[in-house]
Amino acid sequence: MSPEASMSQKIAVIGLGSMGMGAALSLHRARFAVAGCDLSPDLRARFIEAGGSASESAIEAAAGASGVVVMVVNAAQTEAVLFGENGAAAVMAKGGVILSCATMSPDDARRLANLAESQGLLYLDAPISGGSIKAAAGTITVMASGSQAAFAAARPVLLAIAETVYELGDAAGLGAAYKIVNQLLAGVHIAAACEAMTFASKLGLDLDSVYKVITASAGNSWMFENRVPHILDNDYSPRSAIDIFTKDLGIIAAMGQKENFPLPVASTALQLFLATAAAGMGRDDDASVARMIAQVTGLTLPQRKTT
């Protein structure tokens, strides 16, 4: 799409959190007319300062938009901002495309796709991964499924916000299912990294050295490499919060029960995240699982702060 064409195309981004803000800024850099929507006045002000427009109301942000990117917490919020009172779907351009990015069950994705299609809109089941840094750089991964028409309509947006787009099938729900598998692994890996580092502390090991050794060894994982520095720096400001994984692993547990499928490792990880939330750290960084384990076991983790 030429810069002139993108400038004439309005895209609404609903949810200006860490991922949504990055997507909105990436679309703005690609010269779309971007309207942000968030309940937070601070986030709206930040996006306006960057050159976009923003409002508290989804119906205002989405008026006349050819595409709406929904980056809220869950299926319930997605449904509310799209199809609830003052929802975006009612005012989008005819034949517009919805990119639904929240982690949700495949059943919810299929249900929302049916609602969109009943209103003459296209729906791309498009959960995302990569974190806030990649979102800000426009290099997230998208696990997408939907009709070819939905992919075609969404492609200019995807090119602006993502480095990798997996086209996983022609039916909504497939993208959601892939993301659920990813979140199972992500949650387990975070919990395992936190358990390993607190165990290393109990053994009296130098935690900086543990990090160097493990990241060069077979026990490493992307989550270990990414989250353990938060522990080492005593910096639990939320990049991805504990509450995200109580939600996502909760979805996984419910799906396992529905399918009569055992998920013992994911279930254990869920209990660790729930315990951390119960200890008052639900809105803190998900590496706070290490803090919870340290509290229970009487350990002292690194106290230095980042500058």
Instruction: Give the DSSP E fraction (strand runs of 2 or more residues).
Output: 5-15%
Question: Average pLDDT value?
Answer: 95
Helix-and-strand structural type: alpha/beta
Q: Write the element-wise H/E pattern from the N-terminal end onward.
A: HEHEHEHEHEHEEHEHEHHHHHH
Unreliable stretches covering 5 or more consecutive residues: none
**Helical content, roughly?**
40-55%
Number of helices: 14
Query: How many beta strands in the DSSP annotation?
Result: 9
Report what the structure shows:
- There is one protein chain.
- By secondary structure, the protein is of the alpha/beta class.
- It is built from 14 helices and 9 strands.
- The chain has helices spanning 3-7, 18-29, 41-49, 58-61, 75-83, 106-118, 131-137, 148-161, 174-202, 207-215, 222-232, 242-259, 264-281, 289-297; strands spanning 10-14, 33-37, 53-55, 67-70, 97-100, 122-125, 128-129, 140-144, 162-167.
- The strands form 2 sheets. A 6-stranded parallel beta sheet has the order 3-2-1-4-5-6, with helices on both faces. It has a 3-stranded mixed beta sheet with strand order 7-8-9.
- The chain is globular, with a radius of gyration of 20 Å.
Concise summary:
The protein is an alpha/beta fold. 54% of the residues lie in helices and 12% in strands.
Features of the shown structure:
about 55% helix, 9 strands, about 300 residues, single chain, alpha/beta, globular, three-stranded mixed β-sheet
Give the SSE map.
Blueprint lengths: L2 H5 L2 E5 L3 H12 L3 E5 L3 H9 L3 E3 L2 H4 L5 E4 L4 H9 L13 E4 L5 H13 L3 E4 L2 E2 L1 H7 L2 E5 L3 H14 E6 L6 H29 L4 H9 L6 H11 L9 H18 L4 H18 L7 H9 L10
Parallel strand pairs: 1-2, 1-4, 2-3, 4-5, 5-6, 8-9
Antiparallel strand pairs: 7-8
Helix pairs in contact: 2-7, 5-6, 9-11, 9-12, 9-13, 9-14, 10-11, 12-13, 13-14
